[in-house]
């Protein structure tokens, strides 16, 4: 699990960055989305709209990037539920995923060192096996 | 409890942290002695006791050949490959008469199939069948129901006639035979420190039991008299007529190379899907005397008898790029040959090829062979996997959970390739489509599969699974069932 986690989080970082970029483009085209409102109700609506936009872009970008996603996730055809889930995760923002990636990579390095110190790698199939002479039972 | 070792299987698909990895050896490795055999067995019983005390499970691992976690546990793993004593059985030891050339032999659990072949050759005997590669130990190959392509015989469990098991840390060991086919006299069994139990249902369940019926100490096999295989591998355009003939077991109509009206002893189909569906057929015929024909060994490092997997394993490291290019290379490596002859071990030799690979095998009744072969080819094509599809045929097994169980002949479709996302995806698609098509099926225990408690019962049927569990409960004391289990068995819902 720990081995595949960095690849998955790196994918989410990439999807998040693409989502953020797309949201920023839309915000620059729609001033209502870009301008912070002094009224709490109006500001709440603006933020909700940006969040919804981010989720929508996250889903669309995940779908468009599916050939890459499939490689990382060992998946085949895109399922709507998987695309929606990844889109939702991607909308969380790249900063969050970047920090998580750092934590996981550090953990992996520590775990690897710990494992190497504690365990010995073993496998069956010796190079040379005995060849005993036949015996009898009776 | 902390792990002290990480065990890796031969094909590098399983990496298992393990509390203790014990390499077993006989005290005298130069001569096979009953005294030495019993000393080793006593040591194994002590290790079972240690596992029980620590509350962990214990498994024997032979060649580490299986692709699945069937042999893996985080408790105690016993490496048995140095336990390779071999004993001749004399007519006086046996309950029934045998022809001199067919006298059974007692083999210690860790002897490899390749070593069995060499030993039997000195006795003018041979194994009736084996896998395409022979690195497995006899106990491991038996426990997973390993098969070859012996269409007139069956799989490895078909020539095992007695199983010597350690089922508890104390008391005598257990000697299992069929009541309908007793082999050793009671005095001989007792001299081996064992207690005879003759029971067909118990024996058939224990044949393919992947470590859940205790630690196998030794087995008695009934060899065949020495024989030769003679045949060809030819490009074969699989037509409707060919499939109809194969599915009807009418080999004369299948236009097999060198047939001359004969039924082959070994039959294998192979399709390199990504090389324009290039198909080959291997048909080998049994001969009592060495026929006038070329030798088995080919130029280069790839032998004629190698299975698809070994060929791919040799090339996988070098060709990680385009699957289509890989397929072309594969076709050149897996070339036709004509009119060659040799002993079974010359065809199916031990392999030193190693590499991360992925293999699966699905057994179905021969009447559904074409359907499954085409599903496998379609799955491979859909995922552009660097792999081959092959099919072999064997007679049905008596083993309760033997995967070659289908009547009247089991057709085994294999999708073997370099370990890659696309190969794994193609295999998963194959399993799913076979299930969706409602085809009776079973999975090789030692190859990749998606068996769980539900899929096991769907594949083998509730009756077989219940019979197997009931037999295990009769043999293993309740407090020791967890000791002879592992996460693989638990995932199948057969551990208690």
Structure description:
- The complex is a heterodimer of chains A (138) and B (496).
- Chain A is mostly helical and 138 residues long.
- Chain A has one domain (5-118).
- Helices cover 71% and strands 4% of the residues of chain A.
- Chain A has helices at 5-29, 31-34, 40-64, 66-73, 80-90, 94-118, and strands spanning 120-123, 135-136.
- In chain A, helix 1 (5-29) crosses helix 3 (40-64), helix 1 (5-29) crosses helix 5 (80-90) and helix 3 crosses helix 5 (80-90).
- Chain A starts with a helix and ends with a strand.
- With 496 residues, chain B is an alpha+beta fold.
- Chain B folds into two domains: 5-225 and 473-491, Uridine Diphospho-n-acetylenolpyruvylglucosamine Reductase, domain 3 (2-Layer Sandwich), CATH 3.30.465; 228-450, FAD-linked oxidases, C-terminal domain (Vanillyl-alcohol Oxidase, Chain A, domain 3, 3-Layer(aba) Sandwich).
- In chain B, 28% of the residues lie in helices and 23% in strands.
- Chain B has helices spanning 34-54, 113-122, 138-143, 186-191, 200-207, 240-247, 308-316, 323-333, 344-347, 369-383, 421-436, 453-460, 462-475, 487-491; strands at residues 5-8, 15-18, 20-23, 58-61, 76-79, 86-88, 105-108, 125-126, 160-166, 173-177, 194-198, 215-221, 224-225, 228-235, 266-272, 278-287, 337-342, 357-365, 387-394, 410-418, 442-443.
- An eight-stranded antiparallel sheet of chain B has the order 17-14-16-15-19-20-18-21, with helices on both faces.
- In chain B, helix 4 links the parallel strand 10 (173-177) and strand 11 (194-198).
- Chain B is globular, with a radius of gyration of 22 Å.
- Chain B starts with a strand and ends in a 5-residue tail after the last helix.
- Chain A binds chain B through residues 70-71, 74, 76, 115, 118-126, 129-138, and chain B through 2-10, 17-18, 21, 25-26, 28-34, 61-64, 79, 81-82, 84-90, 92-93, 106, 112, 115, 119, 135, 188, 191-192, 383, 421, 424-425, 428-429.
């Amino acid at each position: 699990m720990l081995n595949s986690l960095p690849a998955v989080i790196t994918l989410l970082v990439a999807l998040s960055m693409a989502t953020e970029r797309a949201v920023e483009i839309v915000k620059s085209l729609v001033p209502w989305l870009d301008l912070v409102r002094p009224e709490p109700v109006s500001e709440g609506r603006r933020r909700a709209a940006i969040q919804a936009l981010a989720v929508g872009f996250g889903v669309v970008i995940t779908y468009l990037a599916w050939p890459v996603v499939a490689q990382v996730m060992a998946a085949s055809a895109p399922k709507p539920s998987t695309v929606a889930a990844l889109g939702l995760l991607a909308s969380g923002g790249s900063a969050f995923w970047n920090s998580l990636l750092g934590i996981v990579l550090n953990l992996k390095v520590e775990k690897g060192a710990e494992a190497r110190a504690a365990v010995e790698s073993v496998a069956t199939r010796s190079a040379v096996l005995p060849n005993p002479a036949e015996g009898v039972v009776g | 409890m902390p792990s002290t070792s990480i065990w890796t299987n031969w094909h590098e698909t399983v990496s298992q942290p393990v509390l203790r990895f014990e390499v077993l050896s006989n005290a005298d490795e130069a001569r096979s002695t009953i005294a030495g055999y019993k000393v080793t067995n006593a040591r194994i019983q002590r290790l079972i006791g240690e596992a029980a005390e620590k509350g962990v499970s214990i498994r024997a691992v032979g060649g580490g050949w299986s692709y699945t976690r069937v042999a893996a546990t985080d408790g105690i793993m016993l490496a048995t490959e140095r336990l390779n004593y071999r004993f001749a059985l004399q007519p006086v030891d046996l309950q029934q008469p045998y022809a001199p050339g067919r006298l059974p032999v007692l083999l210690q659990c860790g002897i490899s199939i390749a070593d069995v072949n060499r030993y039997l050759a000195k006795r003018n005997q041979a194994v009736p069948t084996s896998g395409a590669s022979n690195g497995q130990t006899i106990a491991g190959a038996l426990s997973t129901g390993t098969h070859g392509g012996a269409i007139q015989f069956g799989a490895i469990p078909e020539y095992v006639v007695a199983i010597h098991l350690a089922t508890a840390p104390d008391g005598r060991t257990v000697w299992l035979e069929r009541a309908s086919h007793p082999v050793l006299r009671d005095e001989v069994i007792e001299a081996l420190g064992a207690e005879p139990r003759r029971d067909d249902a118990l024996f058939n369940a224990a044949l393919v039991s992947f470590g859940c019926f205790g630690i196998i100490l030794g087995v008695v096999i009934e060899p065949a008299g020495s024989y030769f295989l003679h045949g060809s591998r030819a490009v074969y355009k699989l037509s409707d007529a060919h499939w109809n003939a194969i599915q009807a077991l009418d080999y004369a109509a299948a236009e097999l190379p060198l047939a001359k009206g004969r039924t082959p002893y070994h039959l294998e189909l192979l399709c390199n899907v990504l090389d324009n569906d290039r198909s080959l057929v291997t048909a080998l015929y049994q001969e009592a005397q060495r026929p006038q024909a070329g030798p088995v060994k080919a130029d280069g490092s790839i032998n004629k008898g190698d299975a698809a997997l070994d060929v791919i394993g040799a090339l996988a490291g070098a060709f990680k790029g385009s699957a289509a290019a890989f397929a072309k290379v594969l076709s050149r490596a897996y070339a036709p040959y004509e009119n060659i002859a040799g002993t079974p071990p010359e065809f199916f030799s031990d392999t030193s090829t190693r590499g991360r690979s992925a293999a699966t095998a699905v057994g179905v009744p021969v009447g559904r062979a074409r359907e499954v072969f085409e599903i496998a080819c379609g799955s491979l094509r859909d995922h552009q996997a660097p792999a081959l599809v092959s099919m072999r045929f064997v007679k049905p097994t008596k083993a309760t959970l033997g995967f070659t169980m289908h009547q009247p002949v089991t057709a085994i479709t294999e999708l073997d390739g370099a370990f890659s996302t696309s190969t794994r995806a193609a295999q998963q698609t194959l399993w799913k489509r076979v299930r969706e098509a409602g085809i009776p099926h079973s999975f090789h225990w030692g190859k990749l599969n998606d068996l769980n408690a539900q899929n096991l019962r769907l594949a083998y049927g509730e009756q077989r699974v219940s019979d197997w569990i009931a037999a295990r409960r009769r043999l293993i004391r309740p407090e020791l069932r967890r000791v002879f289990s592992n996460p693989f068995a638990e995932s199948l819902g057969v551990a208690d």
